[in-house]
Specification:
The complex is a heterodimer. Chain A is of the alpha/beta class. Helices cover about 25% and strands about 20% of the residues of chain A. Chain A contains five helices and six strands, in the order βαβββααβαβα. The longest helix of chain A has 23 residues. The longest helix of chain B has 22 residues. By secondary structure, chain B is of the alpha/beta class. Helices cover about 30% and strands about 20% of the residues of chain B. The chains are: A alpha/beta, B alpha/beta.
Chain lengths: ~220, ~600
């Protein structure tokens, strides 16, 4: 079946969530991925990253969204976390100014470790806490513009703008990737997430039952 | 006290867990279990296990303990993950070399570094490179691979195949004849040799059971055994021992060598026509980060830049350089490189591993199989100008592995030779590689017969008149551009082939009972430094032995099962069919579930 070959999607985007502890990254992830309307019932392919498949331009795009697993607490996120990410969301809590101030740190850590072409969104989460707001929307908007980031305020609690924030990012990545593929006259549309990176050798997938002589050179990286 | 029973894991302790499953054993981890914030509001003031150092063994151990249910605090004194297994950028290497030479990194000495100005201020940046301190390859059928799948850490990683194993002999690089088909079709092999090789391969897949064949040679060398018992000639003996077995010298004992040769053969064709895999973006450095992430998902707490100052075995309190303290209810596990000041129990690291890592500005794709970016070159004893007694291994990675940019290549050379000879051997191997490469790159001109002629012995001669310059001038112009050269000596307590011997940790156990007044490390257990072994084979064994010391038994070492789709839990456990494909491409073998492969000779 096509599933065995990992072709239940046309493109796979790895997206990482970063930001201080307690800003609601995990809730954003589960809010976005558990409200599924995708045909893929097996949306979770890891215990701490989850997927949702969207359709853009008739292409099935599988967004694989990674959470920090708590390693952000002491700023000990592994550099491997950023490998192959084509998108990132930097999340802060609108009711906690320190979490907004630390976005600078997260942005520079991202720039240091991720691919240069990574698409980045800034998310002010917990918009339902308007009465406790500590970070003015305008200020964040300016910061986002200065650093060429997408910007949305969301509430993982009442799900306001959650889909919008992820979809905007995924759309931006898609535009980047398709532009890149056009530039290259690229023909490989079969699921290599790293549309933006250098030509790679084929990757071996360890998950499928080995030894059926079927794929040794499958190009699906997950 | 140790509790031999299995404690509920972090995931099991969560209230949501039981709504997902009725049966707590084997552990089934529900979807998104790890993303529920598993951390307490403050730094834990009490943990079950403290681990210092985020190298391979420590990281596998941390993940195993976290999933078993232990509360783990995992720290590293560096600001990066990996410790002795780290994958570093060029800037990080520069700092590391300085620290080694200042004496602040124990277990390493004699670090010498050359970095071209092209890196940093020129066309390459420091982070274009990921240099492994102890590079490794992963055999397709190995204990680590099955743990990678079981723990799902493989999902954090990308792997590529490694099928080219070259043996350097008589000034040239022979590609390995390793499949039955290749043996059959190899025009250069005499019929008798083919027959003997096949006989040996048939034997080695199930060697343990055939004691009558190898037992008489148990205390003798592998080359005696292959020569006398299987009538194999030197080239085949060398290929088997050094390229397939990746052994270090001719004195290797028969059981060890058989084990290692079988490792290669049974790994072949498990995932495709290759025996080994390499991880992208770096080797052990990436894998250890994957296991650390897994441990974090399982509830472990991570801190970098955290240095252990002392552990008091009476109060069980560990103190860190930043003044913080934690009470450790069970064990403190420390990598030798992370030993606190005034430590007195660090095991002696008496064996040297000499390493030279080079980055060359040349794609050198000649070394690789099509579509691959990795190769292994082995220089057997006596093959080098230096008259080497020990093997020099060169592990080569190209840009496709994403550890270096397009147009460059990384050579990892290492030897188990001890003392000053080692550097001579490594230099000789480097020179041999350099010469071979220059020959290869000048052969690009071969099409123009007027410029390039082949001499009788295969060397290319360049028609200097045509080129408008003398031959002498031509050679320096073609000299290889080295972007980076790093030489260092690493020390380890693990001798070559000490991989599966768990008694190395008993040294540490004895130390637990000894109390030295004034020592900052009474009561701690030290892990081992990476050995010279080019495969990951020692890692799981070491982690398992340590796990057993902490938990009381290794029965539930990674005994977990993630709630999952229809995906089959591919275990790396011996599977008869894999033996079949290991050396056989045709259907002439009748397998009846036995590990014994009996290939029909069809000569």
């Amino acid at each position: 079946s096509s599933e065995d070959y990992g072709y239940d999607y046309d493109l796979l985007f790895k997206i990482v969530l970063i930001g201080d502890s307690g800003v609601g990254k995990s809730n954003l992830l589960s809010r976005f991925t558990k409200n599924e309307f995708n045909m893929d019932s097996k949306s979770t392919i890891g215990v701490e990253f989850a997927t949702r498949t969207l359709e853009i331009d008739g292409k099935r795009i599988k967004a694989q969204i990674w959470d920090t697993a708590g390693q952000e607490r002491y700023r000990a996120i592994t550099s491997a976390y950023y490998r192959g990410a084509v998108g990132a969301l930097i999340v802060y809590d609108i009711s906690k100014s320190s979490s907004y101030e630390n976005c600078n740190h997260w942005l520079s850590e991202l720039r240091e470790n991720a691919d240069d072409n990574v698409a980045v969104g800034l998310i002010g989460n917990k918009s339902d806490l308007a009465h406790l707001r500590a970070v003015p929307t305008e200020e964040s908007k300016t910061f986002a513009q200065e650093n060429q980031l997408l910007f949305t305020e969301t509430s993982a609690l009442n799900s306001e703008n959650v889909d919008k924030a992820f979809e905007e990012l995924i759309n931006t990545i898609y535009q980047k990737v398709s532009k890149h593929q056009m530039d290259l006259g690229d023909s490989s549309a079969n699921g290599n997430a790293n549309g933006a990176s250098a030509p790679n050798g084929p990757t071996i997938s360890l998950t499928p039952t080995p030894n059926e002589n079927k794929k040794a050179n499958g190009n699906n990286c997950c | 006290m140790l509790s031999p029973e299995r404690r509920p894991s972090m995931a099991e302790r969560r209230p949501s867990f039981f709504s997902f499953t009725q049966n707590p054993s084997p552990l089934v981890v529900p979807h998104l279990a790890g993303i529920e914030d598993p951390l307490p509001a403050t730094t834990p003031d009490k943990v079950d296990v403290l681990i210092a150092g985020t190298g391979m063994v420590e990281s596998v151990l941390a993940a195993a303990l976290a999933w078993q249910g232990s509360n783990v605090l995992h720290i590293d004194k560096n600001d990066y993950y990996g410790d002795t297994s780290a994958t570093l950028t060029v800037d990080q290497i520069k700092r590391w070399v300085n620290e080694v030479n200042e004496g602040s990194v124990s277990c390493y000495k004699n670090a010498k570094l050359y970095v071209s100005t092209l890196i940093g201020s020129g066309k390459y940046s420091s982070r274009d490179f990921g240099i492994d301190l102890s590079p490794k390859i992963l055999f397709a059928k190995s204990d680590l691979l099955s743990i990678l799948i079981k723990s799902r850490v493989h999902q954090y990683l990308e792997f590529q195949s490694l099928s080219n194993f070259h043996t350097y002999e008589n000034d040239c690089f022979e590609k390995l004849t390793n499949t039955k088909q290749e043996i059959f079709t190899d025009q250069n092999l005499p019929l008798m040799t083919k027959r003997n090789l096949m006989k040996f391969i048939k034997f080695v897949l199930n060697w343990e059971a055939q004691t009558e064949i190898w037992q008489p040679y148990a205390e003798r060398t592998m080359s005696d055994f292959l020569g006398e018992k299987f009538k194999l000639e030197k080239p085949q003996v060398f290929e088997l021992i050094f390229s397939i077995g990746l052994c270090y010298d001719l004195n290797v004992k028969v059981p060890e060598a058989l084990q290692r040769i079988r490792r290669y053969l049974t790994s072949f064709d498990v995932y495709g026509p290759f025996p080994a895999l390499c991880s992208k973006y770096g080797g052990p450095g990436e894998l250890s980060q994957g296991f650390c992430r897994s441990a974090a998902v399982g509830g472990a707490t991570y801190k970098l830049n955290e240095k252990l100052v002392s552990f008091n075995p009476t109060t069980k309190v560990a103190t860190f350089q930043d003044g913080s303290k934690v009470e450790v209810s069970e064990k403190v596990i420390i990598s030798p490189t992370q030993a606190p000041k005034d430590s007195k129990h660090v095991p002696q690291q008496q064996y040297q591993v000499h390493r030279l890592t080079c980055i060359v500005e040349n794609p050198c794709t000649e070394w690789f199989n099509e579509g691959e970016s990795a190769a292994m070159v082995v220089f057997p004893p006596g093959s080098l100008k230096s008259g080497n007694k020990e093997v020099v291994q060169a592990f080569i990675l190209g840009a496709g592995s994403e550890i270096c940019p397009e147009g460059t290549i990384v050579w990892y050379l290492s030897t188990t030779e001890q003392g000053p000879r080692a550097e001579m051997d490594i230099d000789a191997a480097l020179e041999a590689m350099e010469m071979a490469l220059l020959r290869e790159s000048s052969s690009g001109l071969e099409n123009d017969e007027e410029i390039v002629q082949l001499t009788g012995n295969g060397h290319t001669i360049v028609n200097s008149v045509k080129l408008g310059q003398s031959f002498k001038e031509y050679v320096p112009r073609e000299r290889l551009q080295f972007l980076f050269k790093l030489y260092y000596t690493q020390y380890t307590s693990t001798p070559p082939f000490g991989v599966v011997n768990s008694s190395f940790f008993d040294v540490n156990q004895d130390l637990e009972k000894k109390y030295i007044p004034g020592a900052s490390d009474n009561g701690v257990i030290y892990t081992t430094m990476p050995s010279a072994e080019i495969s990951y084979d020692e890692v799981v064994t070491a982690a398992k032995v340590l796990y057993e010391k902490i938990v009381g038994s290794d029965d539930d070492f990674f005994d977990l099962d993630f709630e999952d789709e229809d995906e089959i839990q591919a275990s790396g456990v011996a599977n008869a069919e894999q033996f079949e494909n290991a050396i056989d491409d045709d259907d002439d073998v009748n397998m009846e579930g036995s590990g014994e492969f009996v290939g029909e000779m069809e000569i």
